[in-house]
Design goal:
The protein has 176 residues and is mostly helical. It has a domain of 88 residues: Cytochrome Bc1 Complex, Chain D, domain 2, CATH 1.10.760. 34% of the residues lie in helices and 0% in strands. α2 packs across α5. The chain starts with 13 loop residues before the first helix and ends in a 24-residue tail after the last helix. The C terminus is likely disordered.
């Protein structure tokens, strides 16, 4: 024999809750536009008077090199990102998205930095080398700046590969 389910002794609250929800929405959206403050840049990060805890973007950060002092400009970094990073990777480890079919050098390698010469790097940038296309349209200063950037990608003090020297070779020469 089937059991008969008795209707709940409590009244159905759905209609009442629907009316209350609609009323809350209507009252909440009833503010006039004049009562809303106009947004200004001062409502957010303020560079002229930073709030406590706000990051000061002008101050040098520990461990961040001043590349401008080394002649590596924003133009150099943009050129690297547009033309070089697809194969060499953003930080020069030879791990860019196009590097799977061939193996570009790892510029962070102390061994590579010791044997690479600036003139060869400039020639490779301007005329191409192996699967690397030529970038002969780049101005000479941009090419030299790219070479400085590649040198900068080498191991830093205290981070040399297996205790090897981390000083890159002098301009135009290779270390023994």
């Amino acid at each position: 024999m089937a059991q008969v389910v008795k209707p709940s002794a409590l009244p159905d609250l759905r209609p009442i809750l629907s009316i209350l929800g609609g009323l809350a929405i209507a009252l909440g959206c009833n503010r006039s536009p004049d009562s809303l403050p106009e947004w200004t840049p001062a409502d957010h990060d303020n560079k002229s008077k930073p709030a406590p805890g706000q990051v000061d973007t002008k101050a040098a950060r520990p461990g961040m090199p001043d590349l401008q002092k080394e002649g590596i400009t924003d133009l150099t970094l943009a050129t690297w990102k547009q033309n070089c990073a697809t194969c060499h990777g953003m930080i020069g480890r030879g791990d860019g998205p196009q590097a799977a079919t061939f193996k570009p050098p790892d510029f962070a390698s102390a061994a590579w930095q010791r044997t690479a010469m600036e003139q060869e790097m400039e020639r490779a940038i301007l005329k191409g080398r192996g699967r690397m296309p030529a970038f002969g349209h780049l101005p000479p200063e941009t090419v030299k700046s790219l070479v400085r950037l590649v040198r900068r990608m080498g191991p830093s003090e205290g981070n040399a590969e297996q205790g090897q020297a981390d000083t890159p070779p002098a301009h135009g020469t290779a270390s023994p």
